[in-house]
Amino acid sequence: MRKKLVLVGNGMAGVRTLEELLKLAPEAYDITVFGAEPHGNYNRILLSPVLAGEKRLDEIMLNDEAWYTANGITLYKGKTVTEIDRARRRVIADDGTTASYDRLLLATGSLPIVLPIPGHDLPGVVTFREIRDVDRMLEVALTHRHAVVIGGGLLGLEAANGLMKQGMEVTVVHLMETLMERQLDVPAANMLRRSLEEKGLRFVMPAQTEAILGNGRVSAVRLADGTEIDADLVVMAVGIRPNIHLARSTGIYCERGIVVNDTLQTYDPRIYALGECVQHRNTTYGLVAPLFEQGKVCANHLAGLGYWRYEGSKTSTKLKVTGIDLFSAGDFIGDDSTEEIYFKDIAGGVYKKLALRDDRITGAVLYGDTADGSWYFQLMREGADISDLREHLLFGQRHLGDAGHGDINHAVVMTDDQEVCGCNGVCKGDIIKAITSKGLFTLEEVRAHTKASSSCGSCTGLVEQILAHTLGGEYSAPGVKPLCKCTDFTHDQVRKAIREHQLQSLAAVMHFLEWKSPDGCPACRPALNFYLLVAWPGEYHDEGQSRYINERVHANIQKDGSYSVVPRVFGGITNPAQLRALADVAERFQVPEVKFTGGSRIDLLGVKKEQLPAIWADLAAAGFVSGHAYGKAVRTVKCCVGSDWCRFGTQDSTTMAIAIEKMTWGSWTPHKFKMGVSGCPRNCAEATIKDLGVVAVESGWEIHVGGNGGVKVRATDLLCHVTTMDEVLEYTGAFLQLYREEARYLERTAPWLERVGISYLKERLVADAAGRRAY
Predict the structure, then answer these.
(1) DSSP per position, 321-368
(2) 774: exposed, middle or buried (Cβ count in 10 Å: 0-12, 13-18, 19+)
(3) Among 32, 56, 27, 31, which Cα is nearest to 43's?
(4) Homologous superfamily (CATH) for 634-774
(5) Secondary structure of 95-160 in HEC code, one letter for each residue
(6) Dihedral sign computed on CA atoms, order 177, 182, 188, 191
């Protein structure tokens, strides 16, 4: 007869325990799960990418409702257990729902700490712990601009980065002198701060928050020194504490957390506990790997096997902020009995430090180059003697020479049963089996099939090494991918060769760089054609056959094989003669549909390919030019009516838009390039989600860059403020040309800006006036 198991807490630790239990003893229990949130089990670690717009909620769901049903588990969503009746062995939820148990598993997690300061309960003050917190932040970000994050730890920086990605101006207020003081030493923390400042974050530290101000909702944060910071949103990310209220109220012994032994049992042997709510050997854990280790042990005992013990965990941290490579593990501060070896290149953005005791690694901090983080962590967990490796240790496995078995990396010498992903309990053999049996080629595919590297990310480098060794020449490492399969050179290396060696044709590039395919491929030919056009505008002749069909015929191919034709209408301003000419063309060629576009242009839809030359001839005769709605080029410059007609307009946006469009039209770009000009801060032309946006203010114009609409919306970053039309045209031309010369083919301005940083653009275009005018 099956026993009854009740799990209180539908989070990662508790549900992982159920997964392990179902592997060991699938028929042992009738299982009931209570979860306070109205969802299945999701990866809480990936809330940060959801906030940043990099992932959707369904992409971080680990166990949907179908999983519970398939495994015969009763799931009570949105129900909080408020009482444990230990005498009758049952739990009672806030709505009166009850469930009996033979074994009870508490996985109640942790609660975010809320500073008890005036204003902490105002609308607009949130924590960062659950899906609903992310939803609240995203809702505010849609309509407000200023955010303050209190706390410069891992969670606070993730929240700040996500809000910045949503277009908010973010200030981080931190009590300590350095960021992430629990995971980083001072040099690494300072480098991290500089990197985040370059991305647009602002820091006030050390600083103590005294009060949150607002009448009806938050409006500012006041610091202890009297400084006030504008805030439409305040995120408290100052730490967590174990959620022990339920356990303590029922008489289970608690200290900082629910006290458990090495089998994860509380002082009541029928009641187990694990995760962030527990205290084991005087230690509480907030990272996922220890919680999953606890889950394996707990499941082993619930299954009646009883031969495993949990003896504590060593932990590592990888910061999940796009563009920041950071890793830390163990006790990297050390004491009088430890020694340090380190490598420091501030200008190059690389810092490595290892703490050693008796020729064994006790801790590590890596910044900028974290490829060997998983290897150091493995050596640390194994307690490996590194005395023979010491001389080359900081330079990584690839530089070990004979001491490191030549060029053989750590993944190669691992046995198949050695664990690679501590968070998810995935061994090397599991990964190799998935790669070979399922035909996997990328890190994302391995993550999807094995869960390795899908939680904290600290084993990513090791998983990539296994991929590389298993696939051999078919593997291409992320971040250093070649332009295409025809070459081993990256986009940047190809562009550099074109300039430095004065290569002025596709054939010359392919010959000099020893292209593997003599004619190239559909991926590299358009890229090379663009790079040559930008590098040698006077010498290189545009090669039509290296363009996509849309660009060759000046029209967008539609799903039925027909084409759409979009002539350019500067500023969206037209007249009866132009409209009459368009109508004549539409009637003459029996165009099935005529539509106004979102950019205030007119689209002729359903045109046959053989009609295109004649249609463009008639349009050219009427004074029209191509709108480039089909190509990697300057598209439209959307604008409102501006001060000429609108009662709110502060500047003549229409004249400005026409001037910009006439200056830039016909320019080929790495990807489509859209612009907008708004005549006042009401921003009717949506200029702040364009690649370049100009917004009129009373004192002149604001120039914004790096935005886009579409599936993944990104608001622009403010580049500068100017006063005259000539200055707007100067900055517009300079930004466009810098993008053309330095971005990679098919890279929109948004990811380009995120890659190089707004500080870099300001240095090149604002601080360097001579360089700007040279464009």
Answers:
(1) STT--EEEEE--S--TT-EEEEEEETTTTEEEEEEEETTEEEEEEEES
(2) exposed
(3) 56
(4) Sulfite Reductase Hemoprotein, domain 1 (3.30.413.10)
(5) CCCEEECCEEEECCCEEECCCCCCCCCCCCEEECCCHHHHHHHHHHHHHCCEEEEECCCHHHHHHH
(6) negative
* pLDDT tens figures, 164-217: 989 999 999 999 999 999 889 999 999 999 989 988 999 999 999 999 999 999
Bridge partners for 356 per DSSP: 339, 361
Domain with CATH 3.30.413.10 in the chain: 634-774
Flag whether pLDDT at 600 surpasses 80.
no
| Strands 258-260 and 673-678, sheet pairing | unpaired
Residue with the bigger pLDDT between 100 and 745: it is 100
Q: Is 342 exposed, middle or buried (0-12, 13-18, 19+ CB in 10 A)?
A: middle
The answer to whether residues 570 and 627 touch, using CB atoms and an 8 Å cutoff, is: no
Q: Is 146 exposed, middle or buried (0-12, 13-18, 19+ CB in 10 A)?
A: buried
Distance CA 43, CA 420 (A): 19
- Domain 125-238 of CATH type 3.40.190.10: no
Mean pLDDT across the stretch 751-765? 90
DSSP 425: T
Measured at the alpha carbon of residue 494, what is the angle toward residues 493 and 500, in degrees to the nearest 5? 85
Among left, alpha and beta (phi > 0; psi -120 to 50; other), residue 549 is alpha
What top-level class would CATH report for the domain 550-621? alpha beta
The pTM is what? 0.61
Characterize the bridge pairing of strands 692-697 and 700-705.
antiparallel
DSSP conformational letter for 545: G
Residue 638: exposure state from Cβ atoms within 10 A (0-12, 13-18, ≥19): buried
CA nearest neighbour of 514 among 523, 503, 526 = 503
Q: What is the pLDDT of residue 377?
A: 84
Calpha distance 36→603 (Å, rounded):
51
Res 322: pLDDT = 52
Confidence of residue 317 (pLDDT cuts 50, 70, 90): confident
**Rounded mean pLDDT of the chain?**
88
Q: Rg of the chain over CA atoms, in angstroms?
A: 30
